[in-house]
Amino acid sequence: MRRHLPAVLLLLALVGHLLLQAGPAWKKVHGSKGARDFSSYYYAAEVALEGGNAYDTKALSAAARADGTRKGVNPFFYPPPFVLAVAWVGAVSLQAAFELWFGLNEALLFLCLGLGVWRFGVPLWAAGALLCTWSPIPDNAWMGQANLLALAPALAGLAVARSRPVVGGVLVGTAAMFKMSPALFLLAWLLAGNRRAVLAAVATAVGLSVLSLPLVPFAVQRQFYLEILPGFSTGDYHGLTVPISLQANHSLPDLWDRLLPDPGELLGKGAQRAAALSLVALIGAWAWRVRHRPESPASIGALTVLMVVAPVYTYEHHLVFLLVAVGIAAGEVARAAGAARREGHPLRAVGWWASLAAVWFFLAWPLPWLRAAQAELPAGLSWLTRESKTMAEAALFALLWWRAGEREWSPADDR
Known about the structure:
With 415 residues, this protein is mainly alpha-helical. The protein is built from 20 helices and no strands. α17 (346-364) packs across α20 (388-404).
């Protein structure tokens, strides 16, 4: 029976995922009238395929109205090569593309978890539990987001970079051209002295930009890098009308925006400086702690947390980026708790498991639960629920940061 236990657990996880996450998310996707956030990708590609500017929000909205699908579309603000990843949508309707995108997200989800188990020390039980309980998974799916499209190649690149640095660099460079934030993973290679991987990533970014020129001409690419991208540091996401103080925002800049509020709609100068200095300090602390093993799973997991909290906006669906990081933390806690028991410290073992449970719960509890809990607390304590996910992100970083410097590691350890 023990021989078949992994297969049984995997089957239960798949059933749980279908019933608790994929099924409800699919109902929202299938019943959608406007394809939610995916619509901006769809119409950016459609406008680009017709020779227009993918970053012209008015043109995107006009295309949606011409199709009779939406009155308006959110701004498109992804790197130019992202259009290559969605160029296929011109052959199908918005709703059909949205449903295909859901299937792609499911496939990428299993790829990410498979890479986590194979290379990053994620226990099989943790991967199964994440499939059933990680609420950012359905949030990412029914909103039609592209987070897993960036996470999967980034993880694959990090997994093979030591043995195949050029392949690893190409994969991470591709991820960074889908969303900019995975470029932070290059810090691990710089610290490890893996120059070939870094150069391959940079060359890939340039190469993909050149390949995308037929759809996103040089002048339009220049607009992205010189006009749109600089606004990210202030919360100006190409005219996206979402307040920084939104309850579902769990970023480091949002925290500073609350501590150093500004009357304007964008991030104030004081909050910008504080957020930038905090991020630099955290990266410095990470680099010092992992300097002897920057490519270890715990090191990559801690860096992933910084990647998630660095932008001005960190919504619920962005927390799907922490999927493998939490799995890595589960493996690290299992090792630490086991060592504590063997050394005769059962309470320490319990403490490790309790810390993991708290981090897991507060990062995964759905937003409706958070709001309901906030409504029940006195006004002076409601901030505890409001910032619970931000505090859980900090705790996850601390756990992985600590473990990254605690044990020796070699690439064979977690395979």
